[in-house]
């Protein structure tokens, strides 16, 4: 069975890398890989780390691309590959424009679609935008729905969809565990990473920041930058912020914080370095989906700069708190974690609601027609 995996952004690549490896290890499955190149630099960083050499690359990214332009280029580019490769299955991941457009292109050619990370919902089409729409659209047409958690599977069941549902765990935990282990067992690598981040001061707490949500463009990012500028006045805190390459993010962030000596604005980090930073962080401030899933596994308290999340499990378990993109709330929540040791300890517990490191093998087994025990948190 020829399985064409299609992805195009950094998080999709991180989360599909272990799936591609598991497909290759499953007898009877032949993996084919098509990247759309929705991201260029941030995608290539991941492909290189995991040694993925795509069979096809649509190279669709343009500077400050529009959602419609991007969707059109993905559908048209992939259509030619589908005609040529004639895969038995197309696998897409998550909620990006790449995933939505690729799933639709496969549906239009009557090729079954397997959706990895199915069933996450806020039931608010404006948050996250446009991702909530993308994910729901894919779930309507997919024939195999790989739900990471029981909560996401329950969402799918309640929607009476056509696809078969399997609870697998999230493949990001597979990628994270493999990467943590690689750093732990390779002393030269650990030494390289220590040297790369020698500017980190062990006597100060580390606040690691990431952000890119479209619904925060404009005022939201101004509020986030004001909060970071305020927090940067504390002597016991250092702030490290790998800035997303979207110009709607990087322009205001560099303009407002670029000259602040207590905030390190750095380029998007390749995954090994980012995992190293996550491991060193005391507090994580983010609006990222993937980081919300990874940080609790490493026992790091996460403040999520959003009003709602489609990943409620770690919020319920007590490792994640929603703080919105509001200046005073961000400042007060970070300060509480810095100043109240009991409060910090209640957040900083290792939690694994999203996976056990075996999601990808469950997905590959299901595609090969073998059954496996579902993931249970
Ligand atoms: C996209 C996804 C979002 C995902 C995020 C992960 C959609 C609608 N958005 O948002 O769901 O959470 O990726 O990071 O699918 N750029 C570069 N180089 C890169 C990447 C981006 O220069 O490697 C710049 C380009 O100018 C590009 C712009 O960022 O046009 C926006 O990229 P795009 O993929 O459209 O949106 P993201 O905000 O990255
Ligand atoms: N990440 C990374 N380098 C960075 C920032 C994040 O490798 O500089 C990883 C992070 O560990 C997670 C993924 O990228 O696995 C999240 O991507 P992003 O926040 O861009 O997208 P989202 O998960 O919100 O869709």
From TrEMBL:
Gene name for this UniProt entry: wecB
Q: Which Gene3D superfamilies match?
A: Glycogen Phosphorylase B (3.40.50.2000)
Cite a single GO MF annotation: UDP-N-acetylglucosamine 2-epimerase activity
EC number(s) given by UniProt: 5.1.3.14
* Residue intervals of the UDP-N-acetylglucosamine 2-epimerase domain: 21-367
Phylogenetic lineage: Bacteria, Pseudomonadati, Pseudomonadota, Alphaproteobacteria, Hyphomicrobiales
Q: Which CDD domains match?
A: GTB_UDP-GlcNAc_2-Epimerase (cd03786)
User: Which NCBIfam families does this entry report, sorted A to Z?
Assistant: wecB
Q: Which UniProt keywords apply?
A: Isomerase
Q: Does the keyword Isomerase apply?
A: yes
* Protein name (Swiss-Prot/TrEMBL): UDP-N-acetylglucosamine 2-epimerase (non-hydrolyzing)
Family of this protein? Belongs to the UDP-N-acetylglucosamine 2-epimerase family.
Organism field = Nitratireductor aquimarinus
Q: Which reaction does it catalyse?
A: UDP-N-acetyl-alpha-D-glucosamine = UDP-N-acetyl-alpha-D-mannosamine
Q: What class of enzyme is it?
A: isomerase
